[in-house]
# Entry
Amino acid sequence: SLRLGRISERIYNFMDAQFYGEISLGTPEQNFSVIFDTGSADLWVPSSYCVSEACANHRCFKAFKSTSFIHDGRRFGIHYGSGHLLGTMARDTLKIGGLTIPNQEFGESVYEPSEAFLSAKFDGVLGLAYQSLAEILGSPVFDNMIEQKIVDQPVFSFYLSRCIHAKLTISPTGELLLGGTNEALYIGPIKWHPVTAKGYWQIRMDSVAVQGVSLFCPVGCEAIVDTGTSLIAGPTSDIVRLQQLIGATPSHFGEFVVDCARLSSLPQVTFVLNGTEYTLTSEQYIRKERLGKNEICFSGFQAVDIISSKEPLWILGDVFLTEYYSIFDKEHDQVGLARA
Amino acid sequence: NLWSVPLRRTRSIRTRLRADGLLNEFLKDHTPDMISRRYAQCFPSGTP
# Structure
């Protein structure tokens, strides 16, 4: 979409999202599970007036049961890759991790036509990107927390555990910390990367190297740190070549798979951010999934072409963020990374 | 003043659809992103 002369592209593809947490809305509290998504800036949950089949499988917000509910009446629509949402806006008291945020704008979806949501374990999405990405007018949740001085430090951090030894459904395996960092969950110094465009949490990337050889983004490009994206994404031309270099072949579904027996022989992939190298081994960038009796090894890279005003964007999603603890600093507009 | 929100990791929508044998059908009706189409051009049918 074209806004204020700036071309931006929002990412709304939750096909691969894996991490979610609990919030509550209203008085008394109504609980919802949401994806905490640094790649978008809106909060939405299903409405009790939702007419879609997907809503029947999820918890829905009952505005008439909340004494703190404020009707807004404006419509909102969020278009994402595999469908779209329609709904109305509202304001109510939001609770996250023991924090209370009064008067929070959010969307109540009344129409979720995508079949994708039928299978979703989460009810809605809570965006943590900058306000310029917001579809819904008003302050995104974390901006509201800062404005109302609910957190001392305008910082939040993510720890996402890989837990490859656990079985299919995995117990609590991550933490969103509001107001600071949890030193128990990372090792070594935090490297800080200035945000270069305040929409996504977008930072400068110097290059991408395969087995130590710089092959992609050779003169620098941009990357966004996105907890709502599962894989690592980049421009199609680069990712196709990268898949070839790791020996990944396309499946019928457009996913790329590698022979699990070859895992130990695959090259390392290094992302150089502001002069700091972040290396992923094949065990870290390949996702193993069990399908029936077979184990399938999926490539952790996918092609997504995002048009930006500068260079093509890469997306550092959960595959990257399970290895690196991430800190999002709104005061200094920077992203911190440390070994998780 | 730090406030912790525990996160749970679960199988993604894609994984669930695949396990239920519904992914192929789903992707026929939806184009979640441009990956499939882009790759279809780069890797035509029959590409080893």
About this structure: Chain B touches chain A at residues 1-20, 22-24, 26-27, 29-36, 38-40, 42-43, 47-48 (CB under 8 Å). Chain B has three helices and one strand. The longest strand of chain B covers residues 3-9. The two ends of chain B are 56 Å apart (CA to CA).
